[in-house]
Amino acid sequence: MTAVSDPGAVTQWAQRIGVSSVTETGAAPLSAAGGHRSSQVSIDLSLNGEIAGLASANEPVTATVVVGGRVFPAIVQGATYTASVNALSDTEMVTVEVVSTRARYRSVLGSAGKLQAVSGGDGDVTLAERASLRVSPFSTALAWLVRIGLEGRDAASDSEFETMTRSIVGNDLVMVAYLLDAFASGAVALPQGYQDGQQLLEAPAAYAEFLWTQDFYPASQAYLFSQADYVPLTSLAQLPDVTAMLAPLPINEPAVSLGDLQLLYRQNDGSFTLFEEEVLVTYPRYTAAINGQGELSLTPVGEAGTRNVLRYLPFSLFQPLPVQRVSRGHRLRRLVVGDDYSLWASRSLWFDSHHSPAGDFEEETATYAIWSAFDLDAASLQHPWGQLLGDGLQFPTYSLPSACTSTQRAAYQPGFGKCAHAPYWFRYGQGGSFRAVDGIGERMEILPSYGLERSFSYQLIGNGALQVVRGNTPTEPGTDSTFWRYVAGSAASRPLIYLARAAGGYFVGASVAMVEQPGITLGSPVGSWRTPASEARLARYPAVRTFEIRRFPDGSGRDVNIMGNQVSSTQTSWNYPTGSGVPDYSFRALFPNRPTSFIVANCTQAFATGAETCAPSRVRYFRPLYRVGARLYGVSDFYSNDFLAPAGYTGPYQVQLLDSRADYIECIAGDCLASVPPTGP
Question: What does the pLDDT average to over 283-290?
């Protein structure tokens, strides 16, 4: 077989993304992921795939296969293509590129060695053996977002590609795939001056502006469940005992927290439980089956996974009302299968109901999500808790997420849920003690750091996990929490996933185990700080806002959002009452002849300018535990209050705990830089 050596035969698109002709190629490059030198074994492959997302079967189409930078022609017949290619080593990556009059698509097939392996060793690779042989809007969106995550280049190895899929934002992936398909079919018109969807994607500002022209979100959500871009399951035995499904993970660092996650648990009787980040007030048990499409179908047993949510209803358009949400089942399909991590899509069906004097409401509704899925037990065995708890001569203390029953919950929520992270002292003999963090009082004031000391018991489980049990007290039922480590992390933050259970419900969460650094101090809070929202990079497109916390010497502050040249901010104020953390307050006031309240600098100024009522409406309280250069790792607790009071009011507010999460703040400018320790000799 012969590669196309004439540079003129290489498509314009291939040139633009950095593909060279065979005459420009020397030895195969080292993997950018880990410097792994390829095995210099020539591999012949015969590829047999299909093309989806074309406007019509008669549309002129050309296809080429790129192997390690060399281009091979493919033969296209209708919606199928075949190509014979040669790889100089087993690590050379193989990509298919398709060009038609209305679309340009790509698919990253994987390394030559991987393709040879799935073919059974004969080198003849079919779609049934490798789903990525399907070139489609989805495969193009996936390849595009991997390139975005790698800052403009393709993955240099299978492992690098797989790792990058963990960081793809699901809504971005679905939106890109949906629009590429809609542009090619003519269902959505391209902006003037653009020939195809890929050209629009390559113009970030134009693509971002186009997304504002209309709301494509509702139509895009179900898109992947109407396509053939997935890897069917054939048996429940293909599922691990515990499947973790996570929201996107940062590219450049371990995750300190996650936007969402689920745990799929196989029970001894063959049923499954699906635990979610939202607190479930009924046991989430499901029967499982592989349906005719090769998807995992979960059917609820009774009222599985019931929870309460807020929704705007037809008779309450300006104030959300509590709705009871009961699961009607879930469908899960594998989009991409990797060696350790896979990309899954879920479709969940719910029955929402509300009955009150305000009105009656009942509706079935569906939600969709994209997950990074993996075998949690296998990951936990690689990072067992026994490594962190010492040998009986050391008694470590770790700050861990806590679950408890609290009165500081919204009225529609169960009392059981997240509480402030607390230090847990692990003593020899499978016991220990912890001190709950008091947090914020009824006047939205900062309370002393820690409350009463309480005991707990713990045990190490065979899969490397840690189980912590807190017994009943006169005021609170006991809790049972299981913690899994799934990546190594660092001394500052060791990522974990946990499942919390009590008489009041069930939920899962993601956090980190942190050891408090001796002598840790915040230093000066004054300056500009960034959080994981801006510093932890994801593979997403278009780019999102940059968030900064800016604190000024006079105690005022601003929460700032930066998007390109656009800057917006809201007023805050801060103080430093304890020396151990810094709270940032937001205040709201209601003025005469104004229908709604709005944010003010503080209540003193608001009352001086005529406000009728005012109160602190939110506080973000950051407690540092570990410093690494300009970055402080710790815990952020979020509280809110909806009750506005007149001047002179001394009673309690309606304080609610919104969240407690592992966090960090990184000083990028201002007085806070003076607290950064020197580096080097």
Answer: 97
Return the sign of the alpha-carbon dihedral for residues 534, 537, 542, 543: positive
Better-predicted residue by pLDDT, 28 or 551: 551
Q: Out of 231-235, 380-384, 538-542, which region has the weakest mean confidence (pLDDT)? A: 538-542
Answer whether 663's CB lies under 8 Å from 636's CB. yes
Residue that the structure tokens 């806002």 belong to? 545
> Within this chain, do residues 193 and 263 fall inside the same structural domain, yes or no?
no
Q: What's the pLDDT tens digit per position in 294-351? A: 999 999 999 898 999 999 999 999 889 999 999 999 999 999 999 999 999 999 999 9
For 59, what's the count of Cα atoms within 13 Å in the CB-facing half-sphere? 21
Residues 6+ apart with CB under 8 A from 82: 46, 47, 48, 49, 74, 75
Q: Tokens in use for 282?
A: 């009924």
Q: Domain of 614? A: 527-675
Cα 155 from Cα 675, distance rounded (Å): 39
Mean pLDDT of the chain: 90
Same domain, 222 and 275: no
Within 8 A by CB and 6+ apart from 52, the residues are 79, 134, 135, 136, 137, 227, 228, 229
pLDDT, position 18: 46
What sign results for the dihedral spanned by CA atoms 571, 576, 577, 583? Answer: positive
Whether 354 and 470 share a structural domain: no
Instruction: List Cα–Cα distances, 38 to 30, 42, 47, 68, in angstroms.
Output: 7, 11, 22, 11
Amino acid at 228: A
Q: Tens of pLDDT along 406-456? A: 888 888 888 899 998 999 999 877 789 998 877 888 999 988 766 778 899
Answer yes or no: are the C-beta atoms of 28 and 149 closer than 8 Å. Answer: no
Please give the Cα distance from 627 to 620 (Å, whole number).
Answer: 19
Do the Cβ atoms of 607 and 645 come closer than 8 Å? no
Assess whether 323 and 443 both reside in one domain: no
Quick check: 660 and 510 in contact, CB under 8 A?
A: no
HEC sequence for 32-46? CCCCCCCCCCCEEEE
**Strands 80-87 and 466-470, how do they pair?**
unpaired
* Bond before 542 cis per omega within 30 degrees: yes
Residue 302 and residue 401 in one domain:
no
Distances in Å between the Cα of 503 and the Cα atoms of 400, 436, 474, 596 are 21, 20, 14, 39
Is residue 553 domain-shared with residue 652, that is, in the same domain? yes
State the average pLDDT over residues 134-163. 97
